[in-house]
Amino acid sequence: MRADAERSVRAILEAAEALLAEDPNASMEQIAAAAGVARTTIHRRFASRQALVEELAASAARRLAQAVEDGRPDTAPPLVALHRITANVLQVKSAWGFALGLPAAPGGPADVLHRDIADRCLALFTRARRDGLIDAAADLDWVRRVYYALIGEALHGDTGDTDPDTLAVRVVDSLLYGAAPRP
């Protein structure tokens, strides 16, 4: 895709995220206006509203996958990777909450990426277990689900803080130590 076409698509997706987060019934015309492109441009790039929503979900999932990758889950020490990934994911989820909240079409691009992210998370938790950060008897799928819930609570709970690094510390500490006193 040419650079100007990529910019148009990026502007459309960013506008769609912002508008649909406020009004899930926003029209293609409203999205085009917010993106600063002609209505024909949006229809040329996306055959239907559903195609736009599907690409929005896939684009957000790609951003989330990149946030995980940027945390170096396979090579950084597990605690460092967990903190980096958590802060990165919090940033992406706060910016792309609508798109990431959409149900992924089974077998579609967003679904494949979300499954890969879950697998990467389990691999990181396996490394964390080997380093003694997670109990040897812990069910890692359950730990992953609790981790996801903590991220959701950090984003949507009334914590009074929005700094991704501060929230990442809260999430990681809660995951690894719960409410128990630290040794």
Automatic annotation (TrEMBL):
Signal peptide: none annotated. Keywords: DNA-binding, Transcription, Transcription regulation. Residues 27-46 bind DNA. This is AcrR family transcriptional regulator. GO terms for molecular function: DNA-binding transcription factor activity; transcription cis-regulatory region binding. It holds the Pfam family TetR_N. Residues 6-64 form the HTH tetR-type domain. SUPFAM superfamilies: Homeodomain-like (SSF46689). It comes from Actinomadura namibiensis.
